Amino acid sequence: MKVKVLDFTREMPTFCEIFERRNLCAHTDLVVSKRYITNCLKYGLKEDEIQKIDKKINVDPKYLSETTAIIVEYGIIISHIIWRAIFKSDEEQIAAADKLLLAHAAMISRSGRHELAERLLFLGYCKFKPSSDLLKREMIIGRAKALIMLDKLDDAQKIINEHDWTSSNTRMRIYRQAILGEEAGIEDLIKISKMENSITLDEYASSPAFSNLSLSPTFSSMLRSVFGAADQAGADLKSIFHNMYPDGDNNPAGKAAVKQKLPTNGRSSKIDIDAEAIVDASNKIMEAKLKVTARRSRKSSGNKG
Q1: Is 274 helix (H, G, I), strand (E, B) or coil?
Q2: Which of 94, 248, 260, 304 makes the best surface tag, with the fewest CB within 10 Å?
Q3: pLDDT by residue (tens digit) across 151-170?
């Protein structure tokens, strides 16, 4: 089985440098060696990006943070590719792989790594074919939310406008209108959503997708009308929005508050992640790997005989 990771990932030279630097840490006390320079050049790094021989290099918090993001990205993508390759004819397993990718992206975004979350979701529906239209649209919405957190509202609106949402479910249509800043007709959708329990008041208050509408008195009034004062344990929507955007949407402090107020539990996706199915799929992957290894071993032994 060939896995073309380069088709899905970025910064392969940087990825390879990470492992070369790891070798320096293990064998030379981080003193640059000739092998480090040779391999980094071979992987595509430029000379001015590589430290000189015999110079000691650092592994500081900034480097660790950046490299961790790259390693996490590669790990998620490789596991996703392998999962899809082994179970390419099993629709349930492909759906489980897509759901796990969504869950990973949501978790990563909640940790503040919005750029990585955006990139994973881009791969999820642009490089792969999602198992269902609903999962594809969850990925699009998730990517748009990550772009908003990166202060790229125009880009978020652009990817929303690239797709037709008329046949989507209520939750998806609300998110589409919120990201585009369209208030017309959204109150009826909010009422339907409340009956379906597809979007909670807390989600309206905390999701970056609603930042485009959150300061609108009309939108706030809509939510009060639909949810009522007693709903959500008497949540004061005006207070929630004031805490989320204390100095307005154009103020950096307000945007920082949005990032700090994101929920730390739960999932942004309403699609349930079946933990047992994921564990079962992981076991099947290992079984498949063992079978392939055994088959190759038998074939090799036969050729020798």
Answers
A1: coil
A2: 304
A3: 999 999 999 999 999 999 99
Please tell me the distance from the alpha carbon of residue 268 to that of residue 17, in angstroms, as a whole number.
Answer: 34
Predicted structure pTM score = 0.69
Cα separation of 33 and 21, whole Å?
Answer: 10
* Residue 214: predicted pLDDT: 75
Question: And the tokens for 293?
Answer: 């290894």
d(C-alpha 24, C-alpha 28), whole Å: 5
The one-letter amino acid code at 197 reads N
Closest C-alpha to 124, from 110, 106, 111, 112: 106
Cα distance between residue 176 and residue 141, in whole Å = 8
Question: Residue 115: how many CA atoms within 13 Å on its side-chain side?
Answer: 4
What does residue 31 show for φ and ψ, rounded to 5 degrees? Answer: -90, 130
Quick check: 101 and 117 in contact, CB under 8 A? no
pLDDT in tens, 172-226: 999 999 999 998 889 999 999 999 999 988 888 888 898 888 777 888 888 888 8
How far apart CA 269 and CA 126 sit, in angstroms, is 19
Q: Say if residues 54 and 82 touch (Cβ distance below 8 Å).
A: no
SS3 at position 303: helix
